[in-house]
Amino acid sequence: MTEISQQRPRPLRVLAAMSGGVDSAVAAARAAEAGHDVTGVHLALSANPQSFRTGARGCCTIEDSRDARRAADVIGIPFYVWDLAERFREDVVDDFVAEYEAGRTPNPCLRCNEKIKFAALLDKAIALGFDAVCTGHYAKVLVNEDGTRELHRASDMAKDQSYVLGVLDDRQLAHAMFPLGDTLTTKGEIRVEAERRGLAVAKKPDSHDICFIADGDTQGFLSNRLGKAEGDIVDESGAVVGSHEGAYGFTIGQRKGLRIGTPAPDGKPRYVLDISPVDNTVTVGPVAALDVSALTAIKPRWCGAAPTAPGTYTAQLRAHGGETEVRAELVDGQLEVSFTEPVRGVAPGQAIVLYDDTRVVGSATIATTRRTAAVAV
Amino acid sequence: MAYLDHAATTPMLPEAVEAMTAHFAVTGNASSLHAAGRRARRTVEEARETLAESLGARPSEVVLTSGGTEADNLAVKGLYWSRRDADPARTRVLTSPVEHHAVLDAVHWLGEHEGATVEYLPVDRYGRVHPEALREAIVRNPDDVALATVMWANNEIGTVMPIRELADVAAEFGIPLHADAVQAFGQIPVDFGASGLAAMTVSGHKIGGPYGIGALLLGREYSPVPVLHGGGQERHVRSGTLDVPAVAAFAVAGRVAAEQRERFAHEIGRLRDDLVDAVRKAAPEAILGGDPAEGGRLPANAHFTFPGCEGDSLLLLLDAQGIECSTGSACTAGVAQPSHVLLATGTDADLARGTLRFSLGHTSTEADVEAVAKAIGPAVERARTAGLS
């Protein structure tokens, strides 16, 4: 089994998605250095870049497009800007809003990989004669003797992004190239390399938050889109302990920003246990009530064949989340998962990604959870 | 390499490069009173005379600017302000929906910030404004029109406007008409004096001169309010120290453009027709842009719409084979928008995304056309598979 970005029988025509950040710039540079015929493309994802955000963060600004262009100049590859704003709005932004409205917690980066980078962009790239799409994600694609692909965690667990790529199927993986997968970034290797390559983005800050929410204020963004809808915050007994301006603004496990006047009987902090869009109610309770022992996840996607029998895996339940041991089995097309040890803060709408050691086995969307404590959810 | 984007910019003529480099090392501010200043001023004035002669104007009618965009802004904003100052009722600006953004965005700005009412004259399916349309718009209230501005030839589809007839209509009502002649100069006869225009924009780098230099031809009776205030150069309507080397080179290019125009138009027109035939042969479904009639559009322009294709995709595929052309439409942060010109001619929005503009110039050869003939068929096929994203 070999690292796909390093061993190729022939040079490929590669389309490098360049956000304007340091990772995608170095990824494109590595692909070009490996002898591939690389073309850079920056995706314009908001219809009116200026109205959405300013500053250096994220991936939608004119400045980012310029940074990507300058990186392509230095690498010495052609560069274009493609407008995928309409697709992005439909498939990512509208979906993001709809998911929150339904009381779930979406992951827009995962959705963007699934629907934009490795769907709309990949399809267009293939049609135009490219062999692969290259991104700055930290993950590895390994190729088996029989030509099938495996998606693995990056060498550097702290940077690993296989979670947001777990939705990719065999076909998508067959055309994916992640040149940063084997990088150990603990010593800022990527920035040093960018500097060495003369890429001005070497010193650009990392982007963390959601690229289409300029100021990081997700609640504000949602209330702009969905309007205010005042409702009650209740405790586990159903007693009203506060009010909110829209149940969609909350995430399971959230503690901050609840603005509850009445202290809890035990004086301890309270957390969001449940969001009910139907009656616009948010239920809060003690941290122990967040413990989840099992969940059901829908829309499973597998890297390779779907497992036919129950199995034990490690699972990741959110981006940047830790690993936890689970037992999972496919029942009527849904994934039934039970945890060896109870876990906290599991939010419907997020993905559960199953791993066999470093290998991504599959991914599914969390639909319902079962709590350890007797809580009406 | 097949460079087929001369409407974006065309290589500098060797004579222009020579004139420009000859002046780089010469000291002298054309506004200075001493010998060095007078020497620079002489260069500028000789250049002005050459440009005037090339454009059928008087030397005093040549206002040098930093390029086409500035000249358009000076004409549109400056004439608006001066006409409104003279009579506050004059706030209506008549223009066409197919103008270059240097005009389109300037009139839009007047509407947003200066109380102008912008009226877009109807165009036919070739993007042409008819004199009757201008007349109809004016007669609704001749007293409230500040100015009209209609380009001489369209930069995307190459359609030539009936400028003389439009100017006659405007003159009947004493309304100044401005024309952006950036694309027309050097390709079709452009005679400012005979045109009846109040103002006309030309640019250096579109005719084999340098970047960063252009001119507004401005009738002597007009005093637009300046956009740039300062030392009072250029009839007090365009302040700023003149770029002597660029002015000298611009004049050389202007002279060549005027002298060679007829021969150039004839030869380049034939090459363009070959290119059109080649594209149609390889992609019969391609829709030719602009007015196909003899003299209806610029001889160096070949504009196509490819149904089901994205112009961006075609551009990438041709670029990869060394063929450099344009989608023709303006970019926002590098993102191609559906062409406002095609939309104005009634083209469907999806179709308007599938455009390519090949524009020929003084370095174009048969080999360029052959390269397009070879590459366009497979590129269109591929781009159609990629579809519209």
What does it look like?
The complex is a heterodimer of chains A (377) and B (389). With 377 residues, chain A is of the alpha/beta class. Chain A folds into 3 domains: 2-203, Rossmann fold (3-Layer(aba) Sandwich); 229-287, SH3 type barrels (Roll), CATH 2.30.30; 291-371, Translation factors (Elongation Factor Tu (Ef-tu), domain 3). Chain A has helices at residues 22-33, 49-52, 62-75, 85-101, 108-127, 170-174, 189-196, 218-226; strands at residues 2-3, 13-17, 37-44, 79-83, 132-134, 139-143, 149-153, 176-177, 231-234, 240-244, 271-276, 281-285, 292-302, 311-316, 323-331, 334-343, 351-356, 359-371. In chain A, the strands form 4 sheets. Chain A has a 6-stranded antiparallel β-barrel. Chain A has a 5-stranded parallel beta sheet with strand order 4-3-2-5-8, sandwiched between helices. Chain A has a 4-stranded mixed beta sheet with strand order 10-9-12-11, with no helix packed on it. The radius of gyration of chain A is 22 Å and the shape is globular. In chain B, the strands form 4 sheets. In chain B, strands 2-8-7-6-5-3-4 form a 7-stranded mixed beta sheet, with helices on both faces. The model of chain B has no long low-confidence stretch (mean pLDDT 96). Chain A binds chain B through residues 39, 42, 44, 49, 62, 65, 69, 78, 80-85, 87, 120, 123-124, 127-129, and chain B through 312-313, 315-317, 319-320, 331-336, 382-383, 385-387, 389.
Topology:
The complex is a heterodimer of chains A (377) and B (389).
Chain A: E1 2-3, E2 13-17, H1 22-33, E3 37-44, H2 49-52, H3 62-75, E4 79-83, H4 85-101, H5 108-127, E5 132-134, E6 139-143, E7 149-153, H6 170-174, E8 176-177, H7 189-196, H8 218-226, E9 231-234, E10 240-244, E11 271-276, E12 281-285, E13 292-302, E14 311-316, E15 323-331, E16 334-343, E17 351-356, E18 359-371
Parallel strand pairs in A: 2-3, 2-5, 3-4, 5-8, 9-12
Antiparallel strand pairs in A: 1-6, 6-7, 9-10, 11-12, 13-16, 13-18, 14-15, 14-17, 15-16, 17-18
Chain B: E1 2-3, H1 14-24, H2 35-55, E2 62-65, H3 68-86, E3 92-95, H4 101-113, E4 117-120, H5 131-139, E5 145-149, H6 163-172, E6 177-180, H7 192-195, E7 199-203, E8 214-218, H8 244-282, E9 287-288, E10 301-305, H9 311-319, E11 323-324, E12 331-332, E13 335-336, H10 340-344, E14 355-359, H11 366-386
Parallel strand pairs in B: 1-11, 3-4, 3-5, 5-6, 6-7
Antiparallel strand pairs in B: 2-8, 7-8, 9-10, 10-14, 12-13
Helix pairs in contact in B: 1-8, 2-8, 3-4, 5-6, 8-11, 9-11
InterPro entries (chain A): MnmA-like, MnmA-like_C, MnmA-like_central, MnmA-like_central_sf, Rossmann-like_a/b/a_fold
Catalytic activity (chain A): S-sulfanyl-L-cysteinyl-[protein] + uridine(34) in tRNA + AH2 + ATP = 2-thiouridine(34) in tRNA + L-cysteinyl-[protein] + A + AMP + diphosphate + H(+)
Main location (chain A): cytoplasm
